[in-house]
Task: structure prediction
Amino acid sequence: MQSYYLIGSPIAHSSSPAMMNYTFRRLGIDAIYALHEAQADEVPDAVEWLKSRGASGWNVTMPDKQAMLSLCDELSTASRIGGSVNTVKNDNGRLYGYTTDGIGFLSALGQYGIRLNGRKLTLLGSGGAASAILIQAALDGAGEIAVYCNRPSSRQHVEEIAEKLAPHSRTVIRIRSYHDPEQLRADLGGSTVLANGTNVGMAGSPHPEESLIPDSTYLHPGLFVYDIIYHPACTPLLTQARFAGCRCSNGLSMLIGQGAASFHIWTGREMPVDEVAAYLSSPTPSPDLL
Result:
């Protein structure tokens, strides 16, 4: 039996075991996916433990994504640029590191028939998920990306990513401030997609009832609005989007998309994403798949 894991902390709440174990059983693969809790300073020991167990691969979540970087023998372009790894393939002790969050985002857009090739994306945020979206969208040929952030450290982070992307992409990256609402309105007016890459609007966050978009008049019916949050299923931003007549989606499809990308890296097979989405949305997933 092959074994795969999720490492990070805290991880008890993760949907990844249900998603992966359902897929293994659905496709008749003799494998299991389990949890291994590890803080960032415990990652080297965790990796040695995973190797000793013969793990074929593992996912990495916060706070371990940066710590995993230096332990890989080879890195994908997106991982090198972003300085982060969320998927590892163990090939006879040689570790290959990838980041699949951005792939998951583009896969989610693809389910709605949307491609960013040559088009404009307005991206809210510059943290881990937002950076992954920025990098993959640029690598896949987005025409322009307007990134909204406030802190000087966030601006510097985006500038560093843009510099690293330059040899690999012709995407124009513009760094904006939330304090310029007219610029935000102008960017949204010319965008195909708006993506919220922050936790604003997420249940349990400091701002669960807020949106970074001042009101629905900033949105237009031709704009697709994507919120990476999936709890709650309908965030304040998505409420605004529906009021403005926009097509929109929460982040469950991105979660499944990044998992599907990891699954393909490990097995070479395709995850039945529609079935997995229905399974994860069911009120009582089977206990033996958790």
Notes: The radius of gyration is 19 Å.
